[in-house]
Amino acid sequence: MAILGSQPGLTSADLKANLHDIQDNVVTPILLRYGRHIFLRFNDGAKSRAWLRNMFQRVNARQQEHGRGFTVNIGFTHHGLKALGLSERALASFPEAFRVGMGGRASAVGDLGPHAPEHWEGGLGGPDIHAMAWLRTDSDQGREEVTCH
């Protein structure tokens, strides 16, 4: 894996020392065949932060969730972190590629013509997508249960 920028590369010792803080699906594959992607918009920062505190109990990096037949991962956009109330200083600390988002980097990564952001479905790449939750389960029924709870 190439690391861009002026920071030194990570060593295997660095990774081992931080396994507790790395999503499971980055370290080993999640072999759950049923899933759902849910795109989120945060309209109320306080309510969204309360929801996130509840979801923290369910994300797959939490050891108590292992072996229960589902995983939950959440990825945030820069707009989403802003909607959650992160300070301008914290928001400015992210790399430029994250701050401008995929829509803002479309030409740099070759998303042109029919692949340009104006053709992306559902507002993907725009400011109204604040996060995405990935749900993975071991059954179709499990997918519905995890989505509703």
Write up what this structure looks like.
The structure is a single chain. The protein is 38% helix and 14% strand. It contains 8 helices and 3 strands, in the order H-H-E-H-E-H-H-H-H-E-H. The protein has a 3-stranded antiparallel sheet with strand order 1-3-2. The model is unreliable at 1-6 (pLDDT under 50).
How would you describe this structure in keywords?
149 residues; alpha+beta; 3-stranded antiparallel β-sheet; 8 helices; 3 strands; disordered N terminus
Question: How would you summarize what this structure contains?
Answer:
The protein has 149 residues and is an alpha+beta fold. 38% of the residues lie in helices and 14% in strands.
- Stretches where pLDDT falls below 50 for ≥5 residues? 1-6
Q: Which radius of gyration do the C-alpha atoms yield? A: 17 Å
Helix-strand sequence: HHEHEHHHHEH
Shape by Cα distribution: globular
* Mean pLDDT across every amino acid position: 82
By DSSP (H or I, 4+ residues per run), the number of helices equals: 8
Read across the widest sheet, the strand sequence of neighbours is 1-3-2
Structural class, judged by helices and strands? alpha+beta
Q: First CA to last CA: what distance?
A: 36 Å
Percent of residues in β-strands: 5-15%
What portion of residues is helical?
25-40%
Number of domains: 1
